[in-house]
Write a structure and sequence with these properties.
Blueprint (H helix, E strand, L loop, with lengths): L1 H16 L3 H7 E9 L2 E4 H7 L5 E15 L2 E12 L9 E12 L2 E11 L4
Helix pairs in contact: 1-2, 2-3
C-alpha cells in the first residue's frame, strides 16, 4: 500500500512535468485541497493551472511515510525542481512537500498537498 502511494506521488509529478491535465485529474480528487506558493485552491482548479507549469525536471528525495492506514497515507518528501526559462523561476527550487492520499476503490487519490519552499541562506 505504501509503495503504491509513493508510486502515485511520482506519477503526479510526471503529470505536472508533462503538463498532462488528464493524468493529473485521474490522480487527484476534484475537492482536494492544494496549497502551493501560499495559494489555496481545489484539485479541480489546480488541474487547470498545471498547463502553465513549465518545469524542466524534478527530483524527489527524503521520501518518508508519516502514517499509513488502510484508507489513508500521508507522505513527506523534498522536491527539487528546475526550469529552463527564467520567466518560470518561481517554480524552481527546493521544497518540503506533504501530501495525503485517500483510498478510492482499489487505489488512492490525492486529498491534500502542501509545499513550502526551502530558503537557502
Amino acid at each position: 500500500m505504501e509503495e503504491q502511494v509513493i508510486s502515485l506521488e511520482h506519477a503526479l509529478w510526471e503529470a505536472v512535468l508533462h503538463q498532462n491535465t488528464a493524468a493529473f485529474q485521474e490522480l487527484v480528487f476534484p475537492s482536494a485541497v492544494m496549497i502551493c506558493g501560499g495559494c489555496r485552491c481545489l484539485g479541480s482548479e489546480y488541474a487547470g493551472i498545471i498547463a502553465d507549469f513549465f518545469i524542466s525536471s524534478y527530483t524527489i528525495t527524503h521520501m518518508e511515510v508519516i502514517y499509513a492506514r488502510p484508507d489513508q497515507v500521508m507522505l513527506h518528501y523534498v522536491l527539487q525542481t528546475e526550469v529552463a526559462d527564467s520567466r518560470d523561476r518561481d517554480l524552481a527550487g527546493t521544497f518540503h512537500v506533504a501530501s495525503v492520499w485517500g483510498r478510492h476503490g482499489d487505489s488512492f487519490k490525492l486529498l491534500f498537498n502542501m509545499d513550502s519552499k526551502i530558503v537557502q541562506p
